[in-house]
């Protein structure tokens, strides 16, 4: 890892970043990022979430040097990506969404070539060590085209770590992969983070972001909606949901001014969302009984990241 660690400064500093894609004969100009500012602290696993088209890939591609921003600034490990491009680049490893390899290279050669591209002397390269880390040592000399999808993704992570960057960015690393492979990839991400690598990832799997990330930023329509520790974000709404199965088909729903939401979730299931600071599950049930419902069964759950995400992303209008 580079020894230029900036004490306590953020791993990535994003300031007023605007990206306007130019119009083409098919498309209107598109303002994909509308003055985005936030920090990624050192040492954690940071989740970048947002619905399709929110601007996540645009931001990652700007950091990777694949897309030019229109204005604003980004510092990576203290290095400005425009003024100090070379140092900024050595401090970040990026795993792209799409798998691209020359099919005729072996995993060992892929890593050696990447090491060469970063100007790392042969004696200092870590190709064998990285192959072990992503559990591909027995595929060292196989052609990349013969690897399974999961193996290719692991090889991409190793490739992004060839120059030992302190920051690893993964763009949708688990999109479309099966449960077992997803588990393996997250384990790998966890191991790298334990070794001190700051990880930034985008994902559509909110449950995983909730489990893996210690901090989450949500962007929507190119704007930052929130950036908070995961626990705070999930606890933010203080809402609880109680699902009640009643003994007859539902014609009218129960009502109470303290119910945040009350919906029919099945033939005989009513789901009531309420604020924990305003009422208890017992009071919800009492209300239902008072209004003539006979309760057969009850389950409750806390609001999770998915609820928070839906609530926050539906508050901002189309831009
Ligand atoms: N090369 C481009 N030219 C014009 N518009 C683009 C280009 N790339 C992306 N966009 C637009 O910019 C917006 C942000 O796209 P981006 O791919 O960054 O979103 P995203 O959050 O990564 O979405 P996804 O999760 O689907 O990958 C979208 O409206 C998209 O259509």
Write out the distinct hetero groups bound to the structure.
Answer: adenosine-5'-triphosphate
**Poorly predicted ranges (pLDDT <50, ≥5 residues)?**
none
Specify the number of helices. 10
Query: What fraction, in percent, of the residue positions are helical?
Result: 25-40%
SSE arrangement, N to C: EEEHEEHEHHHEHEHEEHEEEHEH
Give the name of the CATH architecture of the largest domain.
3-Layer(aba) Sandwich
Mean pLDDT: 88
The CATH superfamily of the largest domain is known as P-loop containing nucleotide triphosphate hydrolases
Distance between the termini: 40 Å
- Write down the domain tally: 2
Largest sheet, in brief, is: 6 strands, mixed
Main sheet: strand order: 6-7-8-3-9-10
Strand content: 25-35%
* SS content category: alpha/beta
Radius of gyration: 24 Å
Kindly provide the name of the CATH class of the largest domain.
Alpha Beta
How is the CATH topology of the largest domain named?
Rossmann fold
Domain ABC transporter: 12-246
Keywords: ATP-binding, Nucleotide-binding, Transport
Protein name: ATP-binding cassette domain-containing protein
GO molecular function, one term: ATP binding
Q: Could you characterize the architecture of this molecule?
A:
InterPro entries: AAA+_ATPase, ABC_transporter-like_ATP-bd, ABC_transporter-like_CS, ABC_transporter_ATP-binding, P-loop_NTPase. This protein is of the alpha/beta class. The protein folds into two domains: 12-234, P-loop containing nucleotide triphosphate hydrolases (Rossmann fold); 238-302, Alpha-Beta Plaits, CATH 3.30.70. It contains ten helices and 14 strands. A six-stranded mixed β-sheet has the order 6-7-8-3-9-10, with helices on both faces. It has a four-stranded antiparallel β-sheet with strand order 2-1-4-5. A four-stranded antiparallel β-sheet has the order 12-13-11-14, with helices on one face. The radius of gyration is 24 Å and the shape is elongated. The two termini are 40 Å apart. The model has no long low-confidence stretch (mean pLDDT 88). It binds adenosine-5'-triphosphate (ATP). Residues 21, 27, 30, 32, 50, 52-58 line the site of adenosine-5'-triphosphate.
């Amino acid at each position: 890892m580079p020894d230029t660690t900036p004490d306590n400064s953020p791993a990535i500093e994003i300031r007023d970043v605007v990206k306007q894609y130019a119009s083409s004969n098919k498309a209107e100009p598109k303002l994909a990022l509308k003055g985005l500012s936030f920090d990624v602290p050192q040492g954690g696993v940071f989740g970048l979430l947002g619905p399709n088209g929110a601007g996540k890939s645009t931001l990652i591609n700007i950091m990777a040097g694949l897309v030019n921003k229109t204005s604003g600034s980004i510092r990576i490990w203290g290095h400005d990506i425009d003024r100090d491009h070379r140092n900024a680049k050595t401090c970040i490893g990026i795993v792209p969404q799409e798998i691209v390899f020359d099919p005729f290279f072996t995993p060992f050669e892929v890593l050696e070539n990447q090491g060469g591209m970063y100007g790392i002397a042969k004696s200092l390269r870590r190709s064998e060590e990285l192959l072990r880390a992503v559990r591909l040592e027995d595929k060292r000399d196989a052609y990349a085209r013969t690897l399974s999808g999961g193996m290719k993704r692991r090889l991409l992570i190793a490739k992004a770590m060839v120059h030992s960057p302190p920051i690893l960015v993964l763009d949708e690393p688990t999109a479309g992969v099966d449960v077992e492979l997803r588990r393996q990839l997250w384990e790998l991400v966890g191991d790298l983070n334990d070794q001190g690598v700051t990880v930034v990832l985008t994902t559509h799997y909110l449950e995983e972001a909730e489990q893996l990330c210690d901090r989450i930023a949500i962007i929507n329509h190119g704007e930052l909606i929130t950036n908070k520790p995961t626990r705070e974000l999930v606890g933010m709404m203080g809402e609880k949901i109680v699902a009640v199965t009643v003994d007859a088909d539902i014609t009218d729903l129960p009502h109470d001014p303290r119910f945040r939401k009350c919906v029919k979730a099945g033939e005989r299931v009513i789901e009531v969302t309420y604020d924990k600071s305003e009422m208890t599950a017992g009071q919800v049930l009492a209300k239902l009984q008072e209004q003539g419902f006979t309760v057969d069964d009850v389950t409750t759950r806390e609001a999770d990241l998915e609820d928070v995400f839906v609530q926050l992303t539906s508050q901002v209008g189309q831009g």
